[in-house]
Amino acid sequence: MTLRLRIQVGNLCQFLPQEKVADFSRMSQQELLENTEKAVGSEDMYETHMLLKQARTKARLLNQAYDSLVEHVNQEKQKNNHLEQDVRNFEEGQKYLEQIKMLRMKRPWLEYEEQRRKYTDVKKEKDEMAKVVEGLQSAAAPMKKELQVVQNSLTKTNQQLKNISTCISDTNKAIEKIKKQIEYETDKATEVLDDLKYKKQEEEQNRKSVRELKRQVGTLENRLASIPTNDDNQPAIEQINVKIQQVSLQLTKLHSHKSSIHDEIKSLDISMRDHIQDLKRLHDIANIRLQALREKHKNTYMAVLWLRENSNIFKGAVHEPIMLNINMKNPSDAKFIESFVSFNDLRSFVCENADDMDLLLSKIRDEQKLKINCVKCPSQDISYFRPRIPIHNLKKYGFRCFLKDLFDCPEAVMKFLCMQYKVHMIPVGNEDSKSKVDQIINENPTLNVFFTANNQYSIKTSTYSGQKSTRNYTLRDAYLLKNSSDTIKEKRLQEEIQKTQHLKSVKEEETRRLQQECDQQENTINELRKQKV
């Protein structure tokens, strides 16, 4: 039609007004089509075109929704395929659970049947054994009566032995007491006899001096009688007599002073002897502990004896086993140390020098084949070991001190115990502490170990859950450390002995000086007598 009518569709000037040509030239293909439809088309062409566009857009959206639903359906089908296997597994599990439930229901009955069978067998055996026992009892009835008589006699004898043992023990204690009293009285009698002997010797010496003086006086009197009387010499003789009396008076005072000093020396000897006896008794306590070590571990005991004879070969100090170096301030507190420190460490030697430790082990273990323990003390100063919680903060719980405050020992031993057992951080309490255990644990999270009057408490905290678990140990009675020597008293006695020895030396020196003065005075008297003659 466009050819027949010579219509150029592309030439807008042919069918559009002139003023619309410019507007149509700026339109896109879609806009141009729509406006062309509006300009030359029928009334419903444009509306139909719009409906067609909307239908196309809606169809596109429906296709997208359809594709999405198809994809979702496929996914759900895949899920269903997986769930089918899970459902089968679940159904199979339920089946097994039902079987388990049934078996559990059957188990008590089967166990009952098994136990009933065993009970029947055992009951049968019991009845048979009862018959056998009855027969044996009938046969053993006469012997049982004899055994009862013997047991009664044995009980009576044991009681008699117990009474005799008690009597012997009491007698031994009485004998020991009497023995100590005898030793004391013997020492006292010896002192009295020594003093009496000295007094006798002094008296004899005085008698000799008097006899000698009388002899000299007699000689002088004889000489004086034989000498003609000269009135001119009489004043000089009287002057000499006055000097002799003065010197004699001084000599008497010197002898008196000398005798007084000698009495003081005797008193010092008695005091020193008493101190030595007290010191010996303290050393006997140390020997008791050494004998206890001998009973518990003979190898360590032999090593101690060797060390005492060969201590000079070491560069530094080598301390005897810890149990021999610990002195309890109160023997009743020994149970805390003995329950807490292992016996292997209590019997350990403590070295301050690593070379000394190697040498000791070489000499004792390798050469003498003795099994001993040896440790080296830490290099830190003793002031390094301080408690985390001051004791005054723990007083309210009934704690009286830390474990290290209960005993004395060499510094090297104390440093080892602080490092190994934390004795400087473990508080010791009383019965009041026992009633506050829960409060102590809750309010002191850093406190891992503490003691009450008769128990040890150890607290551990779980690394994962943070929960605390508490273990309680009853303290056993002390055996190794119950006999402790009083180191303070021992030191005081040693100081008293040294002081007494020094004072005695001073007094003896003064006695020698007085004796020299006495000799000088006697020489003076002799010279005056010669002048008188």
From TrEMBL:
The keyword Ion transport does not apply. GO terms for biological process: double-strand break repair via homologous recombination. Keywords: Coiled coil. One of its GO terms (molecular function) is single-stranded DNA binding. Residues 66-132, 186-223, 490-531 form a coiled coil. It comes from the Eukaryota. The keyword Coiled coil applies. GO terms for cellular component: nucleus; Smc5-Smc6 complex. PANTHER family: STRUCTURAL MAINTENANCE OF CHROMOSOMES PROTEIN 5. This is Structural maintenance of chromosomes protein 5.
